Amino acid sequence: MAILPIFVPQAACPHQCVFCNQRTISGEKRTGLAGVLRQIHTWLPRLHRTAANEAAFYGGSFTGLPLGEQARYLAPVEALLKARVIGKIRLSTRPDYIDETRLLFLRQHQVTLVELGAQSLDDRVLQLAGRGHTAAQVTRAVQLLRQYHFQVGLQFMVGLPGQDWNSLRATAARAVQLHPDIARIYPLLVIKDTPLAKMYAQGRYQPLSLEVAVAQAAFLYEQLTGAGIKVIRVGLQPDAELCQPGNILAGPFHPSMGELVQGYLRQQQVAAILRRQKYVPADQVLLRFPKRLESQMRGQHNVNVKLWRELVAPATLILERF
Q1: Domains (range + CATH), the chain
Q2: What is the spatial distance between Cα 18 and Cα 191, in angstroms, rounded to a whole number?
Q3: Which of 157, 161, 162 is nearest to 172 (CA)?
Q4: Residue 104 to residue 195: CA distance in whole angstroms
Q5: Alpha carbon separation from 56 to 88, 234, 321, 322 (Å, rounded)
Q6: How far, in Å, are 40, 124, 137 from residue 132 at the CA level?
Q7: Which of 206, 224, 205 has the alpha carbon at shortest distance from 265?
Q8: Which pTM does this prediction carry?
Q9: pLDDT per position in the chain (322 positions), as tens?
Q10: Do 9 and 26 contact (CB within 8 A), yes or no?
């Protein structure tokens, strides 16, 4: 499976979210049919013809565009669908840009999955982030998407202004109730030329440390996946544009955020088992794991192993790959 990504940055966005500068995040400077076609032509040679491929519209609020403009953007990917170069079309949009008319239109144009930028399900956090929609509108949008037989994706963020652990726990609980088909989790970064950058410069916003961001993303990941919701991404794609010097001003960016989250989860799972008993110097604690999981098991700079050795002291911890 491969994704044919098409960015339409800030298209039809009626609000300026405090964290958003889509043109910096995506690297795509122009919005319009020419930009859509250029991106398709760039990615097309990299695709092997298969129904497992998907065309995906990212950025902006796709369903906020006039229907005629949406149709022009969708036409070239519908042609790829007909030619069996791809097998699915999906797009991202805002929860308050979902209604019956738009969904009937999307079904006519063979869209199968719609991702909603929920970010949080706490109204106070949404207001502080300048989202311009409520948690109730997310719920209503999900209900409508289900009613019209779309697959549903929800995107969440950790580290939003006003978001604490209680807010995050409440968002996780509501997300589990909504039970999307897929989800994404992003740590909030301070990107240049955003309202958040100004807030940060004025001392009115403090980003999460990498350690706390990993812990919060891991919590959300565990809650979602534990409910059978597939989390398809953790962390922003470390593309060349985003990683240009000066674009990320502050915040918990790591090119392998997903791997850090997986490592943290392994750390906590094993630690919970080790804490159940006391050890004496003669004890040897054997920890066996598949080779493919070694980086996750050890953690960055062996942080997991160091913690586990402390927990079994004065016993000896032995690691064994298979």
Answers
A1: 3-255 (3.20.20.70), 275-321 (no CATH)
A2: 10
A3: 157
A4: 36
A5: 9, 17, 38, 38
A6: 31, 11, 10
A7: 224
A8: 0.91
A9: 789 999 987 666 766 788 887 554 444 455 689 999 999 999 999 999 899 999 999 987 999 999 999 999 999 999 999 999 999 999 999 999 999 999 999 999 999 999 999 999 999 999 999 999 999 999 999 999 999 999 999 999 999 999 999 999 999 999 999 999 999 999 999 999 999 999 999 999 999 999 999 999 999 999 999 999 999 999 988 777 788 888 999 999 999 999 999 999 999 999 999 999 999 999 999 999 999 999 999 999 999 999 999 999 999 999 999 9
A10: yes
Q: How would you write 121-167 as a 3-class SS string?
A: CCHHHHHHCCCCCCHHHHHHHHHHHHHCCCEEEEEEEECCCCCCHHH
- Tokens of residue 194, six digits: 């955003």
